[in-house]
Design brief:
Blueprint lengths: L4 E6 L3 H11 L5 E4 L7 H6 L1 E4 L1 H9 L9 E4 L1 E5 L5 E5 H4 L5 E5 H13 L4 E4 L5 E6 L7 H4 L4 E17 L6 E7 L2 E8 L6 E9 H9 L2 H11 L7 E3 L4 E10 L3 E4 L8 E5 L5 E2 L7 H17 L10 H29 L4 H16 L1 H11 L4
Helix pairs in contact: 1-5, 1-9, 9-10
């Protein structure tokens, strides 16, 4: 007898696997379709994500949180403007153990893959399988999204992100560092545990400069990073390849819809989640947090449905869409506004934004509010 599924998830990345595990807890039969090469092997080697407390709690509930060596707690965050403006966040001030955790992507993916392997309600399949509900988690370049008739509205930024890893002369001290520079935004994210000397780099640079930076010999590229980071961690050495991708702000117009019934039988629907539904600038490190929140919200909506409602019920899926679109608005506005503000070279704007950073640093109430939002404590 042919295998039947309640839900087919197209995309076996972090969001797809997390959603599959959440739905399996609801006793739903899930087909998980892997998308070969969705991120690319080079990018997979150097990526690291900043995950907040809400994401950690979710992944821990699925027994998929990496060990301490691959999930480094951030005790403080230093943000430097392009003049003398600066903002500092501290975990102790917030009354928490960590502001966020920098998670090594291969380690997280391995833990999720192991959890999926031992979950009998989830079957990894090579091609899309018929199901009442299809969830699209294929990432920003999803082909299924277009196939289902959703329009992806993209606003490209004139920047590329360059990611790599560094070995540093000085220990990072569990500090995440970010520099808003006249020609880009640079972040050093601590890796390797409390005593680590390794950082993940995300450098947003003008698109016209990306190719030249990627072509530099490793020693010269590390020297450029040292200059941009004001030599905060001493001598730097590249410890991984470099990867780059264009940056954009994007959101699908529709996140759900109906599909023709299979063989004239029960209704079928589709829904988007993660980067297939939305993209934001990486400067706030919230991209994966938003995607994991999508997975959690969709699982919660399906869990709370009336017993007689199908998982394909569009009323449920539209409830999820409204909730997540509303949650996305403030983060999208904040990251886009900061990107636009710090991409302008005019002297008057430089003075204004650094004055604003100084005022923000002195405003404990506003700082605490922003910190709690970023940590996932709403």
């Amino acid at each position: 007898m042919a295998q039947t599924f309640d839900i087919c998830i197209r995309g076996g990345g972090i969001v797809g696997k997390t959603l599959a595990l959440l739905l399996a807890r609801e006793r739903l039969k899930v087909a998980l379709v892997a998308v070969p090469g969705a991120a690319g092997p080079a990018l997979s080697d150097v990526r690291a994500y900043a995950l907040n407390a809400a994401s950690r709690q979710l992944l821990e509930s699925l027994r998929s949180w990496p060990d301490a060596e691959h999930a480094t707690a951030v005790r403080s965050m230093h943000v430097q403007g392009d003049q003398d403006g600066a903002v500092h966040f501290d975990a102790a001030t917030q009354g928490v153990d960590a502001l966020t955790w920098i998670v090594d992507v291969p380690a997280l993916e391995a833990r999720l893959a192991e959890a999926v392997r031992y979950q009998p309600q989830v079957e990894v399949v090579a091609a899309p399988a018929p199901a009442a509900l299809t969830v699209v988690c294929e990432g920003r370049a999803s082909s299924t999204r277009e196939e289902f008739g959703a329009t992806f509205h993209v606003t490209p930024y004139p920047q590329h992100a360059i990611a790599t890893r560094l070995q540093c002369e000085r220990p990072h001290g569990q500090v995440a560092r970010q520099w808003f520079l006249p020609d880009g935004i640079l972040a050093f994210l601590p890796l390797g545990g409390p005593q680590g000397h390794s950082v993940a780099v995300v450098w947003s640079v003008p698109q016209g400069e990306a190719a030249a930076l990627l072509a530099l010999p490793p020693e010269d590229f590390a020297q450029r990073l040292g200059e941009a980071s004001q030599h905060a961690l001493g001598t730097l050495t590249l410890s991984a390849e470099r990867a780059a991708w264009p940056l954009q702000l994007a959101r699908a117009d529709r996140w759900c819809g109906s599909l023709p019934p299979a063989g004239g039988k029960a209704a079928r629907s589709w829904v988007l989640a993660g980067d297939a539904a939305h993209n934001v600038h990486p400067l706030a490190g919230q991209g994966l947090n938003l995607g994991l929140a999508d997975a959690q919200a969709l699982a919660r909506v399906l869990h709370g449905r009336d017993y007689w409602r199908s998982v394909a019920d569009l009323r449920l899926l539209r409830q999820y869409e409204r909730e997540r679109k509303a949650a996305l608005v403030p983060m999208g506005l904040a990251t886009d506004g900061l990107q636009q503000l710090f991409s302008r070279p005019e002297g008057a704007l430089q003075s204004l934004r650094n004055w604003g950073m100084k005022g923000f640093e002195r405003s404990n109430l506003l700082k605490n509010f922003v910190a709690r939002q970023a940590m996932g404590n709403y």
